[in-house]
Amino acid sequence: MFLHVQIAEVLIEPPVTDFGPFLDGTQKDQAEIAHRVDEALRTYGCLYLANHGIPQSNIDEVFQQTRRFHNLPLDTKLAVARSETSTGYTALKSEIIRSVPSLKESFGIDNTKNLNRSNRWTAEEAIPGFKEFMLDFHQVCSRMRAQRCTTLAQQFLSCLSVALQLPPTLLLENYHAQACFTMDLIRYPSISAQVLQSETQRRMSAHADFDTVTLLFQENGPHVPALGGLEAALVGSSKADTSASYDATGIWFDVPPRQGTVLVNVGHMLKRWTNGRWDSLIHRVGVPPKFKWALEKRESEEDVMIPERFSIPFFVTPDRGTTVEALPGTWDVDTPRKWGPLDVKDFLRRKRKVNLT
Questions:
Q1: In whole angstroms, what is the distance from residue 13 CA to residue 15 CA?
Q2: pTM of the predicted protein model
Q3: CA-CA to 218 of 20 to 30 Å: which in 137, 277, 286, 340?
């Protein structure tokens, strides 16, 4: 299965990969899926996973719970604001990318075993059942198929290790044993399509994630029409390898929600580990496709409003004591290492400080 988007006479086809054979198949099946994942990440920096093991009913419910949280009074949300030592609420326009505030608000949830940061929660009476469900969903992502003590995140990392033909001592999953994973419940408020298209305000500017990989859930339930708005830059289409350059000169394609799938994209850590074999996905949130069409076809100056949008990224980050450097097989005499060692804890601290006011 493929998505087909025609842009600048280039056919963009981010693949949908059936992950079931990797979860339940033979070594041969796993090798085949790893090869497909490798090809997708080399070409697009992302892919959709189908048959990933997380029930759609759980995904639909997590979006309902996300709406419940963001419908709370602002004072209630600010009472659990995020800090350097805890996850929590991030207010509208608090996240800054290249001096541009993002028109989004979010609520972050860490693994409860993460000793580096703690979670902050609203009082149970303010939103009954919210904490219990969200912790359970985090564990659904962090402890899928519990009888085998594995996770969707860890299984995907295992798939990447197969693709890279890594020895047992250097498997990517080894560097994520503490499951320092963070989930963000994001709301983008309703906004004028004309304003968003003019870029005088932005839902989220072009950027790459800091982590190893991101599992992204985009709302697309039976009672909620797929809205979209996520856009990705085609790998290698920019004059320079920076988010700002891709924003200005890159070829962009829409990455809409797809029922029953999880979008997986490459983060900065994986780019460094693979010496650029898999480039981090530069992405942004702009005007959804159907509203682009509406703007082109409109016959008056009447304002077109884009509804609010919800998305939930699950950031898969290495253990804090990890040093990231190019893995064996990703460099040699003819292809030297592009970057030196990177201390994960220090890098994340610096990045979070820069991007949050």
A1: 6
A2: 0.91
A3: 277
Burial code of 209-231, b = ≥16 C-beta within 10 A, e = fewer?
A: bbbbbbbbbbbbbeeeeebbbbb
Within the chain, strands assigned E span: 5-7, 10-12, 16-18, 46-50, 89-90, 96-97, 100-101, 105-110, 182-188, 191-192, 204-207, 213-218, 230-233, 252-254, 261-266, 283-285, 305-306, 309-316, 323-324, 342-343
The DSSP code sequence of 209-230 is -SSSEEEEEE---TTS-----E
Alpha-carbon torsion (49, 236, 280, 25), positive or negative = positive
Predicted confidence (pLDDT) per residue in 126-148, tens digit: 999 999 999 888 877 765 443 33
- Most distant CA pair in the chain: distance in Å? 63
Q: What is the pLDDT of residue 5?
A: 38
Of all helices (H) and strands (E), which one includes residue 129?
A: none
pLDDT of residue 221: 56
Nearest Cα residue to 32 out of 163, 165, 164, 157: 163
